[in-house]
Known about the structure:
Strand order of the largest sheet: 5-9-4-1-2-3-10
Largest sheet: 7 strands, parallel
Strand content: 25-35%
Structural class: alpha/beta
Number of strands: 15
Amino acid sequence: MNNVFVYCEIDGLNIPLVTYELLSEGRRLATALGVQLEAIAVGDGLKSKIEAQLVPYGVDRLCVVDEKHLHDYLTAPFADVVGEVLAAWKPQIALFPATFEGGDLAPRVAARLCTGLTAHCTRLAIADYTDPVTGETKHNLLHQVRPALGGNIEATILTPQTLPQMATVIPGSFVPQRVDEQYDCEIVYHAHEKTAKLSHTSLVSLEDGEQAGKNSLSEAKVVVCGGYGVGSEKNFRLLHELATAMGGEVAATRAAVDAGWAEREVQIGQTGHTIRPSLFIACGCSGALQFTSGMKDSATIVSINTDPDAPMNALADYVVIGRIEEIVPKMIQQYKEKK
């Protein structure tokens, strides 16, 4: 009762990084509130396969739903089983990943529980709230922070009247931290065979399509990011050459994406990815707040810019003043020679 609850997204038996990020943040919130961290994993063939991967992140009670008809994600059966467990366990906070799956599942669960939902959060905090009209103070509410007005500001949203307080969190917003390899956890195996009859949809086949060729920004050690200052689509192609030479991935600011130089899937910032690579090379990036919030925690930051006073330079560990078309080809040559 009144614990913190995390939905663990599972891809077969593979656990995406965002699941560990949510568990770590859930552990932090649970510790701050003095309550337990609960989690649920739904799928097929999970029993005795995923518990040891999730529990070390500080999970006090883990619900594993292992049914053949839940092998692939489908809206109705997943919403039914997760909603049922949440209704029984009654947590005060429930966190979901802001992924395709989490973004589809969370609002349907919230509707079943008659509570609110804040989507695409980048920060979470526990604090009190005083109603400006009634003067009533509610203690230890979840402050859900997310980008608003196109990423130009941050909005803090509260759910003071209903439980659970639900939020989806943008991948990369938190750092995963294991607590104890031998963490003491209660494992609950939940049977939910009736959902097989409730679903009106069946999954015939699942193909990766173009996804196999997409960038894997969340796990990239080196990221080369282009902003509007890159100047052209032709210059942006130089960033792909540099990333290939360095074994990294290419990212972009919103302005570069809007210009048509990069796909929306590689956008960094409050309305895109939040990442923490070992090396982040910002090419022609001005350094706007809505952008830097998505990469400021990178281990080493290099800024290549023609403007010595660009805000990006103040955040960088190393600054190179010059034009992209002059500097980047030299970097490509250097890395190719090293290989």
